[in-house]
Automatic annotation (TrEMBL):
The gene is PAN3. The lineage of its organism: Eukaryota, Fungi, Dikarya, Ascomycota, Saccharomycotina. One of its GO terms (molecular function) is zinc ion binding. This is PAN2-PAN3 deadenylation complex subunit PAN3. It comes from Lachancea lanzarotensis. Residues 125-147, 170-195 are annotated as: Disordered. Belongs to the protein kinase superfamily. PAN3 family. InterPro entries: Kinase-like_dom_sf, PAN3, Pan3_CK, Znf_CCCH. The keyword Zinc-finger applies.
Length: 637
């Protein structure tokens, strides 16, 4: 080999790429092949690395770019600092190929901030596998178990998963192989074109920019009185879930295109169905349908609007009567209907039904069958679903209503622990208005539909037989099997009713209610912890507004003899503590304690010492609070 002439190495793959996925000397003289077409040209990064570096661009990330809107005096120096930070972060991002969200790793180039007007729109809270990365709903057994957490490093969901593995219909996904699942040939064909486009491109937040939980081996056993910083904040999995929900809720669709700007009282239509599945022909009387997220001009809230294309409705009663009946139905197991109207905004006579919107919700089918990471079904979860569905049925049937649409596609999972709601209510009644339909018969059909839904789900439990229709082969306990047999019994010997059904599993209702209650208490306790955040944040802002301004360095009031000097010392006392050897002490508890006392203006006194330790001031929190308030007022006048 001729070491003087690097030509000999141009076709040999660089080992750094093989081992680490990237070569940091690629642009710095490394003579081996980095996967470029021509090794002699200026090399581009290998695929893995390029997706990473494009995902995180600290320079363009708004968190690191000073806002132009702010009229800050030292804008240029801030910008220079921000650029330095950005550069440093960029280089860190470039050097860490493994730090990536599993979503982002398969996405188009990432724009670190959410840009609702980006032309390249892809849904966040929409249908399909799109939402499958969110934390799965859990069995109702324990609230903490519900927080399995989003593991960005997991192999199946992380960088190591190939595109094929992420395809729900790919054999390796476990969906197409093994047990054929509960679906008949027809139903699996119906979903055969489910897209593999997820994850979407631009709208993924950099969740890693927040402090992650420490690695397990660093989680030291704490004494009863000790707290780690993570324990002081909202748990990461809940924070991430709420962020994703907010992001999905606020995402808008680029204006222009075929969609009307305003439909009735609603605007900002965002299509929610981004899948290629063929709609069940019998549904909606064979009419085509579309689902949109919409913003209400009336109350500013977000809803979903289902449009049934090209319907003929001649009398207003067809709309108003079913709507009046269904809008009274309020139950946690039902997606409430808010509005029904006919519009010509789509250039046809479309029927629009408006329902409550639950960001990031997925149908049961998406959650358990076609997601990248299907939520496993357990018996506990099935009992929970059964109890919730019965509650919804009880509410509807007692109002002389029937759903007519209980199926895997129309029941959505809205949150932990396995909370579900029957969607799409009221529509069936509008479309079949004046048809000679017996509600009691429809209610009987609801029972059977519920049985079919639970049977299909049971078939996904590990150990269930291949024949979906055979309840005996399902891996459920005898009690659940009896419930299924009762619901699916077609002999019509006696009408099915909740009075007969509920006693069959009365003992199972209590654990479900306990789990839901525990979860409520858990989230309430988290909420209580966060209660003070806004107050402390405002206090921090107030302190930061007045502390460290340029004028304070020349103003006599801020000098050692000045009346505002205690503020300078207090700021140091709170944030700039050092230990005996001069090392910074960053004790969050100390900060919170001081700020809380300052906010309350307690009479407790503290001793503030000058850095040279030559002078000290003894002052109460009340006096400090008054001083800070008066300074702030003087500044804002
Ligand atoms: N109330 C809701 N809030 C938020 N998202 C919803 C709501 N209802 C449905 N979705 C989302 O919209 C997706 C599409 O719902 P839709 O009812 O159109 O299912 P579908 O399988 O496309 O049915 P169809 O074949 O009848 O069109 C659901 O999978 C879910 O992710």
């Amino acid at each position: 080999m001729d070491k003087a002439n690097p030509e000999w190495a141009k076709d040999i793959p660089c080992k750094n790429i093989t081992i680490y996925g990237f070569c940091k000397y690629e642009n710095d003289g490394c003579i081996f092949n980095h996967g470029n077409e021509s090794s002699s040209s200026v090399s581009s990064r290998p695929v893995l690395n390029s997706s990473l570096s494009s995902k995180f661009n600290a320079k363009t990330a708004p968190s690191f770019t000073p806002s132009k809107a702010l009229n800050v005096k030292n804008t240029s120096s801030t910008a220079i600092k921000a650029e330095k930070v950005a550069k440093a972060l960029q280089s860190v991002a470039d050097q860490q190929p493994s730090v990536s969200s599993p979503l982002a790793s398969h996405s188009a180039p990432f724009s670190s901030s959410f840009n609702p007007y980006a032309a390249n729109f892809t849904p966040v809270g929409s249908a399909g596998a799109a939402e499958t990365s969110s934390s799965p709903p859990s069995a109702p057994s324990a609230p903490s178990a519900g927080h399995t957490g989003f593991n960005p490093y997991s192999v199946s969901g992380g960088l190591l998963a190939s595109a094929d593995e992420l395809n729900p219909l790919h054999p390796s996904s476990g969906f197409a192989t093994g047990s054929p699942g509960p679906f008949t040939q027809e139903s699996s064909n119906r979903h055969a074109n489910f897209p593999t486009i997820y994850p979407p491109s631009h709208s993924i937040l950099q969740y890693h920019l927040y402090a992650p939980d420490p690695a397990l081996h660093l989680k030291l056993p704490l004494k009863a009185n000790e707290r780690s910083p993570e324990m002081l904040f909202i748990p990461n999995d809940i924070r991430e879930e709420l962020l994703k929900k907010n992001q999905a809720a606020l995402q808008v669709f680029p204006s222009g295109g075929n969609l009307p700007e305003i439909v009735g009282d609603y605007f900002g239509l965002v299509p929610l169905e981004f899948h290629n599945r063929v709609t069940n022909k019998d549904r909606y009387q064979g009419h085509q349908n579309s689902l949109y997220k919409v913003f209400s001009n009336f109350d500013g809230k977000i809803y979903i609007m289902r449009r049934i294309h090209d319907v003929k409705i001649t009398e207003t009663a067809q709309i108003s009567q079913p709507f009046q009946r269904w809008k009274k139905l309020v139950n946690p197991g039902v997606v409430e209907v808010r509005d029904v109207f006919i519009t010509r905004a789509f250039n046809d006579a479309s029927l629009c039904v408006v329902h409550d919107y639950f960001p990031q919700s997925n149908s049961l089918y998406e959650t358990h069958f076609v997601s990248y990471n299907p939520v496993p079904i357990s018996l506990d979860l099935l009992w929970s679903y059964l109890v919730q569905l019965c509650s919804a049925l009880q509410a509807a049937h007692s109002s002389n209503l029937a759903f007519n649409n209980i199926c895997l596609d129309k029941v959505i999972v809205t949150g932990h622990p396995g909370r579900i709601k029957i969607g799409d209510s009221c529509l069936h009644e509008v479309l079949h208005f004046q048809e000679d339909i017996d509600v009691t018969q429809q209610q009987q059909k609801d029972f059977v539909d519920m049985g079919l839904l639970l049977r299909d789900l049971s078939a996904k439990i590990i150990g269930s037989g291949q024949d979906v229709n055979d309840v005996e082969t399902l891996a459920v306990d005898d009690q659940f099997r009896l419930v299924l047999q009762y619901l699916l019994d077609s002999s019509n010997a006696e009408p099915k009713s909740l009075e007969k059904l509920l006693p069959m599993f009365a003992s199972k209702i209590l654990p479900v209610t306990s789990a839901l209650q525990s979860y409520v208490e858990y989230t309430e306790s988290i909420l209580a912890r966060e209660l003070e955040n806004a107050r402390l944040f405002r206090l921090m802002c107030k302190l930061s507004f007045i502390f460290g301004r340029t004028e304070s360095r020349i103003d006599i009031n801020w000098s050692e003899a000045g009346e505002r000097f205690p503020i300078v010392l207090f700021y140091d006392y709170v944030f700039h503590q050092t230990n005996e050897s001069g090392k910074p002490v960053m004790d969050l508890t100390h900060v919170l304690r001081c700020l809380n006392r300052l906010d309350a203006g307690t009479s407790e006194k503290i001793m503030l010492v000058t850095p040279d330790e030559m002078n000290c001031i003894i002052i109460s929190y009340k006096e400090l609070k008054d001083l800070i308030d008066s300074t702030f007022r003087a500044m804002s006048q």
